[in-house]
Amino acid sequence: MKRKHKVYLKLNLLSLFCIGVSFISITLAWFAYSGLSTVTTEVDVKAWNIEFMKDSEVVTNEIVIDVNEVYPGMEPIVEKVSIHNRGDSNAMLSYQVVSARVLNTDLENQENGYLVDVLSHELPFHININLEDRYIEAQDGVSNFSVSISWPLDSLNDEKDSKWGNEAYKFQQEEQAKQAQDPSYTPKKSLKIVISVKAEQFIDTEEAPDINYNVGDLILYDVVNNQKCETLSSTCLKNYVLDTNNTIGDSTVTLLPDLYETYPSGNYSNYNTLLNETATTWKGTTRALTLEDILKVISTDNQYSYLKRDNLSDVIIGNLEYKNRISTIVEKSKEYNGLFSFSSEKFPYLSSNKCYWVNTEYSADKAYAFQKQDNITATIYGNDKNTPCSIVPVIIVDKANLME
Q1: The sheet that has 227-228: what strands, in order across it?
Q2: What is the spatial distance between Cα 252 and Cα 398, in angstroms, rounded to a whole number?
Q3: Would you say 100 and 119 are in contact if contact means Cβ atoms under 8 Å apart?
């Protein structure tokens, strides 16, 4: 027997124009075991109970988030909904932007990830969506779904901003005229987005998340013997999962060794030589750490991960999964002497008091390096190539070598 509920989260933003965002639809159900517990016709049934909470209050049928104003230069607003698995079955979560309308134009959902990218990067304001964990365990598992809204003061595209603003004003006037002619008419919001968040019973498929290798998970790995280990030593090191979406079908996992170990240090011109010093002593497969590796991780935070540039407003990095979006944002950082900042509290495994090179050039005389700035913030910045920084490899490990 299946039971379906739909829950919608509406986000109303009022400024020069109104923005309405509604989401979440979720299917809840009962799942029956396929086997019989006895020779009788009794069948064991597991309870399926996914609970949404906002501001410590249980939400059942509808979630409404009201934001009074949105305007250029506003402080980013983040709304969070926690998803609790109170049932007896493990659950897998996913979301999809079902539709998006800007004024009178419906944005075509051309392919997977397209609308998420448009909302994150292609409008004067930015709406960034994040689902923290795709897997939640039975009875006590929790994940967080969040939406952040921001509007940089300067977008570097005055023509587009003016056009969008003029069209929004015209749209408002037309909607008000319709209401004047027919008082029962409800004016449409300037923007409407429908996001579907789905919870399903977790099934071990090739595409399902591998719960043993979530991004940031700590793994003890012997870099010489190429196997999992239990006690820290000169070869048994702390490592952290770098993959943001490691699946059951993936045969390997990408690990970043603990930044508080001792690694070769030198100028960027000696990067490959210093990297090989480590690679020749470690038995597993290694490669250079790149800017893309780090950006994929920190961009999952839609609240404290920023692109910062000289004389321009800070911009939340946003979703980077669609096509060549990473390349686009890297070029933006180079063009305006920019850097990337992120929370050293949220990503402690990417934060060290020492500077570390990444194998990505910034300019003719600079390369990207990253370093902890204080207890709150770390940055990825263009560093003079003659500055000595440490070099840490990325390790590609067969999952079979990490089995108990």
Answers
A1: 227-228, 218-222, 236-241, 252-257, 393-398, 285-288
A2: 4
A3: yes
Distance CA 397, CA 252 (A): 5
pLDDT value of position 178: 93
How are beta strands 62-67 and 5-14 bridged, if at all?
Answer: parallel
**Sign of the C-alpha dihedral, residues 388, 358, 277, 217?**
positive
The b-or-e profile of 253-283 (16+ CB within 10 A means b, else e) is: bbbbbebeeebbebebebbeebbeebbeebe
**For the segment 276-332, what is each residue's pLDDT rounded down to a tens digit?**
988 778 888 999 999 999 999 999 999 999 999 988 889 999 999 999 999 999 999
Side chain identity at residue 397, one-letter code = V
Class of residue 361 by CB neighbours under 10 A (exposed 0-12, middle 13-18, buried 19+): middle
User: What whole-number distance in Å separates Cα of residue 391 and Cα of residue 359?
Assistant: 9
CA angle 93, 95, 99 (to 5 degrees): 160
Q: Round to whole Å and give the CA distance between 169 and 167.
A: 5
Q: How confident is the model over 38-96, as pLDDT tens digits?
A: 343 444 455 667 887 777 776 533 333 434 456 677 788 888 888 888 888 899 988 87
Residue 249 CA to residue 174 CA, distance in Å, equals: 52
- Give the distance between the most distant pair of CA atoms in the chain: 79
103 alpha carbon, distance to own chain's centre: 27
pLDDT value for 80: 84
pTM of the predicted model, to two decimals? Answer: 0.84
Distance in angstroms (rounded) separating the CA atoms of residues 268 and 389: 8
Q: Which two tokens stand for residue 27?
A: 């299917």
CA separation for the pair 95, 74 (Å, rounded):
27
Report yes or no: 184 and 190 within 8 Å, Cβ to Cβ. Answer: no
Write the CA distances from 133 to 95, 203, 310, integer angstroms.
11, 16, 34
Q: Which residue has the tokens 């038995």?
A: 283
* CB-facing half-sphere around the CA of 53: CA atoms within 13 A: 15
> Nearest-CA neighbor of 197 among 114, 102, 106, 80?
80
Ranges under pLDDT 50 in the chain? 1-44, 60-68
325: left (phi over 0), alpha (psi -120 to 50) or beta: alpha
